Hints:
With 639 residues, the chain is of the alpha+beta class. The N terminus is likely disordered. Keywords: Endosome, Golgi apparatus, Membrane, Signal, Transmembrane, Transmembrane helix.
Amino acid sequence: MEVPWRRPHAIRMCVCVTLFLLITAANSFYLPGDDPQDFLKGDLLNVKVNKLTSVKTQLPYSYYALRYCRPEKIVDSAENLGEVLRGDRIENSPYVFKMREPQMCNVVCRIVLNAKDAKEFKEKIDDAYRVNMNLDNLPLVVPYKRPNSNSLVYQHGFDVGFKGGYAGKPEEKYFINNHLTFTVKYHKDEENDAARIVGFEVKPFSVKHEGKWDDKIRLTTCDPHAKRSVTTSESPQEVEDKKEIIFTYDVEFQESEVKWASRWDTYLYMADDQTHWFSIVNSLMIVLFLSGMVAMIVMQTLYRDISKYNQLETQEEAQEETGWKLVHGDVFRPPSNSDLLCVYVGTGVQFSGMILVTMIIAALVFLSPSNRGGLMTAMLLLWVFMGLFAGYASACLYKMFKGTEWKKISLQTAFMFSGILSAVFFILNALIWGEKSSRAVPFGTMFALVLLWFGISVPLVFVGSYVGFKKPAMESPVKTNKVPRQIPEQAWYMNPVFFILIGGILPFGAVFTELYFIPTSIWLHQFYYIFGFLFLVFLILIVTCAEISIVLCYFQLCSEDYLWWWRSYLTSGSSALYLFLYAAFCFFTRLNITKPVSGILYFGYMLIGSYAFFLLTGTIGFYACFWFTRLIYSSVKID
């Protein structure tokens, strides 16, 4: 018997489409070490400003949403789709350096706050907003010493300001960081005078500048002629209505031994690496051990059962046997709501393909953190083009269930998950618009997303469904009885709900360690770039989902319960429930989100992520049980 997707021309088609995906998304990929920029002494270095971010609100804002110094003309940098969805707003700034020429107390501008400006600054200070900048595509960081250690840890951006009080006065005041001491680290070429930027750091200060403001600006608090620089915030600049604020900066250049190709190491290894790596390895070893035990038990049990069944000589002996062989006439009976199962399986194939290809590309270092938004753009494009495989998988399963309306199943596959995702996304985006955040997706980007969905993804789903439906239907290894067999009363531990919830624990445990770090990188605005280990965890997740689903499916069939179709999907898919519960636990214990809108955004995004995880793990478990049942029932003699 020939399985449709194993035919050579079908495989060739899949390979060609996959190559096309990679070529199409190539603009989002970046090879580290490619296109370094050399700077000679005196070359201009233009600092770009990015969004204001806060771990309390999760609502980014444009840098110029506050009354900061502005250049003569604000120019937006070109952004890819992923950057727009992340809320990045990269613009030029009045901060301009000259390569390897230090500057001291350079005055940027002088402003006088009005009541509205002061209120906005105070709100951002209350919400712990941080200012993000870039130089030569490197983000600005603030170095801190680790507790009980001499090593440094780097935090992205600097605080807008802080709250405090004057000595002897209980009233709390707001102060702004208006003086920045930049440090630009560079690696010099030994053969010529050119240098490459390998680090961009800052130390922010709040200082109430004093001095004369005329044709020749002369500040007494910060004077390059007297070599007097700002080193403390002992006399900070207060934020109040009608208060004058003078923005200044210093810049110094330090030669570094770090080469350009390694300059991102500072940003990618900011956490406790030893703890992180040990936890991942420990988790992998435990899961591998459990998976080996499960596989050994299953293989030994099945080998004994199949040998015993094949040695039965009479029909009477066969009828006296109990177990999974007795339900051979019902095990391949189409389940209830089979159309919905086909849709979920097809969508799961689409999501699994997207994750797998993204993991491979990222693990091979084809996606660089310097390409902001590149990962999200690649995932979005891969999701769109993987619609071809979604349609193919759902149509093949639908035809096996004797379905005839392939167009209906194509529509459902194209709109089920994407429709739910779009509805939640539009609601969340409306809330973000109400907060006037830069994360609100503009109408142009929204139109591009709709065009990708309806113009590319939906047609590809129909193409895949058409190809899949034209293939010969998969035949069951045994015939299905006309009259369904009565399922005997089951033990309490075979209860479907209990069985399903138990099955989701092990897959969730396989990714638990990474779930500790990934939310931190997302919600606390840190880099996560250990895709090699993440890919290994993903492979372990696949093995775990497959084996736990097979084991529980085997126990179910042994109890003469042949309704395995949906249960195989829900068994491993239930791990998504634990994922969502863990996200709720993190919200109340690890995060410091204060605004109700921000809480809604958090749970909205985690709901989408948990739903996608359900599709991923459920589809893996389903196909594992599908292969398993076909294998065992084609291996025994059926009279």
